[in-house]
Every structure is written in C-alpha cells, then in structure tokens.
Design a protein that fits this description.
Layout (H helix, E strand, L loop, with lengths): L1 E8 L10 E2 L2 E4 L3 E2 L12 H6 L9 E5 H9 L13 E4 L11 E4 L3 E8 L5 H5 L3 H5 E3 L5 E3 L3 E7 L1 E3 L4 E5 L12
Parallel strand pairs: 5-6
Antiparallel strand pairs: 1-2, 1-6, 1-13, 3-4, 3-12, 5-11, 7-8, 7-13, 8-11, 9-10
C-alpha cells in the first residue's frame, strides 16, 4: 500500500488552518518542528484542559486529498492545510489503515498511526455544514469519522510534496482505528 504527499503544512500559532510549506521536518517523539502541536505531551487545548500530562498521540495529522475531492462534489471548497492537517496525501487509504501502521514518508521519516482525528465544531466555523460532511453515521448507526488520521513520529526527517508514502502494516490481529 503506497501513496504520495501532495502538500505539507505547519503553524507555530494556534489557528484552525495551517499554511502550506515547501517542506516540514519531523522530530522523533515530538512531531512537526515549529508546529504548535509538537511535543511529547498533549498540545490540543481541549486535551490539555483535561490532563496536560497525557502522551501526545496527535503529533502529526494526515488527511487524504480524496476527502477534499468528495467535499468539492458536495459543494464545499477545501484546500490542503485548511482543516489543520500537517500532511495531505493522495492514493493511500488512510482511514482503512489499522492502528499501529508505520508510514514511511520520503527518505527517512516514519510515523506510527495512533487513530482517527475527532473533528470539532470549529469545522463549521470554517464552512457551515462541513462537520456533517466529515462526521456521519453508517447504515448501522456507527459513527464514521473522515477527517484524517493522527500519528506519532518514530523517526524524523524532512518531508516535501511529491514524496512517496509506504505503509507497513502491524502484525495481526489488526486493531481498527478509533478516535484519539
């Protein structure tokens, strides 16, 4: 299973969106260099308020370009970085990966998939009605989250648009992604 990096984004300040960059640098055990969400412990404000000593399982946020295409068909215009992701991908089924998958990105970087992004109401502040497009229910009533996946950095490295992504699945039995 493989794909491509289509965009990279980071922001040193708390903001819903993250500007696109020519490259980002991943730091082992921390996240994206210079990004407000980098650190060994949680940095997302709601999680800090709950318990600031929790490990940061949301160091790097990946989102698939295919979601933006789907949103476009529903009348929304969303570009890479606008939903706060660090790495926008193409050609790899991020939501279908099991927990613990290793993603080899570019020449040296490796991230471990920790779970699904749990989007919040800020998405509707960005574009009204968008939250219902990225969180819904399947025919059995189960919650379906489409707003990308979260990961931790196992091995650092520089990442640029055009870099290849290769998925290394964990040993079976696979654990499905859950929100983190």
């Amino acid at each position: 299973m493989s794909g491509t990096v289509t965009a990279v984004s980071s922001n040193g300040e708390y903001s819903f969106t993250k500007p696109n960059r020519d490259s980002i640098t991943l730091l082992a055990g921390l996240g994206v260099a210079g990004d407000v969400h980098a650190g060994a412990t949680v940095k997302h404000r709601s999680r800090v308020a709950q318990d600031p000593t929790q490990p940061n399982l949301r160091q790097v946020h990946l989102m698939h370009q295919e979601l933006f295409d789907e949103l476009g068909r529903a009348g929304f215009q969303v570009l890479p970085g606008q939903l706060g992701e660090n790495i926008t991908t193409s050609g790899i089924d991020l939501l279908g990966l099991p927990t613990g998958t290793l993603l080899h990105i570019g020449d040296t970087a490796i991230v471990e998939v920790t779970g699904l992004r749990n989007p919040c109401h800020q998405i509707d502040n960005f574009q009204h009605g968008l939250l219902k497009q990225v969180v819904g229910r399947d025919e059995s009533g189960n919650v379906v989250r489409k707003a990308g996946i979260m990961s931790i950095v196992i091995q650092g490295g520089e990442i640029r648009p055009g870099d290849m992504i290769r998925a290394e699945l964990p040993a079976e039995p696979h654990r499905p992604l859950d929100r983190v």
